[in-house]
Design brief:
Peroxisomal Thiolase, Chain A, domain 1, transferase (chains A, B), homodimer, isoprene biosynthesis (chains A, B), acetyl-CoA C-acetyltransferase activity (chains A, B), Thiolase-like (chains A, B), 13 helices, EC 2.3.1.16 (chains A, B), nine-stranded mixed sheet
Chain lengths: 388, 388
């Protein structure tokens, strides 16, 4: 019913505190993606942008500006927002349009710039992504909401703060190997436990940073990819999901319904199970999120992920490497770009561009990205294409 | 290649200065659309939201909140932004997903709330929709940019300020008949000419107001519509277009390239020409915009629209009624909702809900909505479906 869609090019800026304008940041990633695809901008038929707080850098309506700067001002575009899940939700929309045959080649680019507003203003802005009437408006910021989830998880499954810390340690271990990562610094469990409390039981090193950055991909039909003669990655599954917007509306806060639904849809589409996945980029805005994610995605039984992480199962050489890029925790979290950045990592892994953090013999990868406390989520599955 | 898509339900809040929260405004339109479609929320499979400045009312990531309030928190959604063209660009995306067979029934809802920020802050926020590096950042607000276009048009085509005023007079004449309109007040050419200068040659009554409001539609497959036994409208054409983001990048500022491209694509898809259109809702953020629009859409030869408007050709009983709803000028312009509101007007016209402003014997309608100074645009064509 739908056509095969491929990722033909990918590029990211460094994630971190960037001084360029949001458009300059976006352009840098766009140009890298276009170059890596071996195409010219003229081959792009539509632009899909993901961004949440363009207002913070005084630029919304970004697609026309980006297209104009690429010299293709006649090419239509749009911006998609789904809080911290914007990148993957936008990627899915770009994918769907190519799959339906509306376009042969599109640019899918995520970008965010917030660090110049400072931590307090960024936290305030981000709280607008929650169900503000029930959550943000009553002082519940995301660290607080995830702290509730962490407490519930720890109580239900006898997990400890040390278990959570292992997620951060592992992701920093990977991030050190990623030249584009925001926080390239090895940390220990002790560092995490001794870092300042943000919202108990979460401490500073349980939290991902506020980051600026952009990531871009070129999506195209299989025909287009084959004709290019370039390396590419095939998209074999795509799913979206949703949860009650406010955490208080959920029956069980040790699981995220949108992740479960999105993963189920993506696995079904690809005819795969969690056991078929060789590595995954997942949404670890807080350490507890990664623990919950990898259970919801089916990699570990409910309540078992914390111990699996401690045992090294999710390390680069473990049974299911999670966040080889360093994840949101170390690579960084420019919220509009994050979901696209995960696809960039898959592209880099499958086309020999991941250097020392390459996952050995990987052929199938999963990306998982959600918005807010998981009110929205999307999961994508990718297959390495051998070009002999 | 693609399936037929229909509009089965539609609803709008009153446009104007509203005191409810942005979510309450959205919910009101959503419920009206759902009721008019004769469906229950459970039949909705996805939510497409359009909005630009949710930040101004402290709520982005609106789809999950709206879906949760509708009691369908498991239904995925997203927000699409394309400045003042957000509504139509979002509508096209919802349309494309149903046309591709991904969904049978979706909610397409636009909403905006800005009036509480005041005129100065609204003007500042809106300037972020321009190419801020070249335009907004140098003090060029939208009244100023459209004033340049007006001056160029008037010089090239020997049009007068009085000609422009006729657009406002006609749209207010229609808006008086629309109970949902923001400014329901009959005005004269003299009123317009004597109103305070905003950016010469544009005066206050050449400009549409800042409005709050929401408009919603239910889109579905033809099968779904037929089975419902309810009145519906068929979407027969859809096109998008883009222009250089900054006005200074355009060769001729008396035409908007995105409109021309979007219209061409929509006409081609429907196999129709401008002569087949019985009425149109077009983007009249300023009077000059409507003049340019109706030439770019092919209703009048270049340079002839101003005189045609003066001669009454675009009045409710004219040869091609333009903006029977009152348009942005009188009905109002809640920027995220505007493009959807145009579709609501078509639905109302074609299903006997337009009262005194009903266009006689109309069977084919066009909607046209753009972002900023026309950097992005979408055009849709609709056919009245007789249910005998």
């Amino acid at each position: 019913m739908t056509n095969k869609v491929c990722v033909l090019g990918a590029g990211s800026t460094k994630y971190g505190k960037l001084n360029e304008s949001i458009i300059e940041i976006a352009m840098s990633a766009a140009k890298d993606a276009i170059e890596s695809a071996g195409i010219t901008p003229k081959e792009i038929q539509a632009g899909y942008i993901s961004n949440v707080f363009g207002v913070a850098d005084k630029q919304v309506h970004m697609a026309p500006v980006i297209m104009s700067n690429l010299g293709i001002s006649h090419v239509p575009g749009l911006t998609i927002e789904s809080a911290c899940g914007s990148g993957s939700v936008m990627f899915r929309e770009a994918y769907a349009n190519v799959a339906a045959g509306f376009y042969d080649c599109v640019l899918a680019l995520g970008v965010e710039k917030v660090t110049h507003t400072g931590t307090t203003q960024s936290t305030t802005l981000f709280s607008y992504c929650s169900d503000f009437f029930y959550e943000g408006g009553n002082g519940a910021s995301f660290p607080g909401l995830f702290a509730s989830m962490a407490r519930a998880y720890m109580t239900t499954h006898k997990a400890t703060e040390e278990d959570l810390a292992h997620v951060a340690v592992k992701n920093h271990e990977n991030g050190v190997l990623n030249p584009k990562a925001h926080v390239r610094k090895k940390i220990t469990v002790d560092d995490v436990l001794k870092s300042p409390v943000v919202a108990s039981p979460l401490k500073l090193l349980d939290c991902c940073p506020f980051s600026d950055g952009a990531s871009a991909t070129i999506l195209c039909s299989e025909d287009f990819a084959k004709k290019s003669g370039r390396p590419y990655v095939e998209i074999i599954g795509s799913g979206r999901g949703a949860s009650p917007a406010a955490v208080q509306g959920r029956e069980d806060i040790t699981t995220i319904p949108s992740t479960v639904a999105a993963a189920r849809a993506a696995y079904k589409m690809a005819g795969l199970t969690p056991k078929d996945i060789d590595f995954a980029e997942v949404h670890d805005c807080f350490t507890i999120a990664e623990i919950i994610d990898i259970e919801d995605l089916g990699f570990f039984p409910k309540g078992k992920a914390a111990h699996a992480v401690r045992d090294g199962a999710t390390r680069l050489n473990g049974e299911i490497p999670i966040n080889p890029s360093g994840g949101l925790k170390s690579k960084g979290h420019p919220i509009g770009a994050t979901g696209v950045g995960q696809v960039v990592e898959v592209f880099d892994q499958f086309t020999g561009r991941a250097g020392e953090r390459t996952v050995k013999d990987a052929e199938i990868a999963l990306t998982h990205n959600f918005g807010a406390t998981g009110a929205s989520a999307a999961v994508h599955l990718f297959r390495k294409v051998d070009r002999k």
